[in-house]
Design brief:
Order of helices and strands: HHHHEHHEEHEEEEH
Helix content: 40-55%
Distance between the termini: 32 Å
Largest sheet: 7 strands, antiparallel
Radius of gyration: 19 Å
Number of helices: 8
Number of strands: 7
Low-confidence stretches: none
Length: about 210
């Protein structure tokens, strides 16, 4: 679904975006795009967030280095990819509602260095949302998909009391071939996801470092 949507997006949503701009003043605003490129998939999906009431993405800092781990990927997802991710596990309307609250994100993926005895991938995702309510919707949505994406996933008691600054905190363990830990924490309009940690201690340590950034 991700590759299908990514290939389809420029031709469908991209065409709608151009059509919207052309309707606001002919080809002049269309030509102007090349001097002022859209900064997110959100602005393509919602042309008014580009042309009428500009809504540029919020930069999300995640300067994260983990001892014993190698970073294998670092990127931004954006509204389009969040919609695809959520719709793979939730109904389409709920997935779209969650994605529409997106305001910015940054993720980093790590793997253990060779010989470390853990072959899984750890993903650290820090997100910003338009409002605390939007962040809450994503928090609840991601908590729901964890139980779907991992066979045998269970919501487990947090190994330690959730930090005082948390508005919400969820802790999961999985029974995959390589068992992993997932932690999700919301603070105001931000949500942090630690997905694929090998144990509770690693997840908690990474969570603290990620917020510190």
């Amino acid at each position: 679904p991700y590759f299908q949507e990514a290939l389809f997006f420029p031709y469908a949503d991209g065409a709608d975006f151009i059509s919207h701009l052309k309707g606001t003043g002919g080809f002049k605003p269309v030509t102007g795009i090349y001097k002022d490129l859209p900064r997110s998939s959100e602005q393509i999906l919602h042309p008014e967030k580009y042309s009428t009431r500009r809504d540029d993405p919020t930069p999300v800092a995640l300067p994260l280095k983990l001892d014993g781990w190698t970073q294998v990927h670092n990127d931004v997802l954006g509204e389009l990819v969040f919609r695809v991710l959520m719709s793979g596990f939730l109904d389409v309307d709920r997935a779209q509602t969650i994605a529409e609250g997106w305001d910015g994100d940054r993720y980093r993926a790590f793997q253990k260095k060779k010989g470390a005895g853990y072959s899984g991938t750890l993903v650290v995702l820090r997100t910003a949302w338009d409002t605390p309510d939007d962040a809450k919707e994503f928090f609840e949505g991601y908590a729901a998909i964890v139980l779907e994406k991992y066979d045998g996933a269970t919501k487990a008691p947090a190994p330690k009391k959730a930090p005082p600054s948390s508005d919400a905190f969820a802790h999961f363990s999985t029974s995959e071939t390589v068992p992993t830990v997932v932690q999700i924490e919301r603070r105001g309009s931000e949500v942090l996801v630690i997905d694929g940690a090998p144990n509770d201690e690693t997840a908690s340590s990474v969570r603290k470092k990620a917020w510190g950034g």
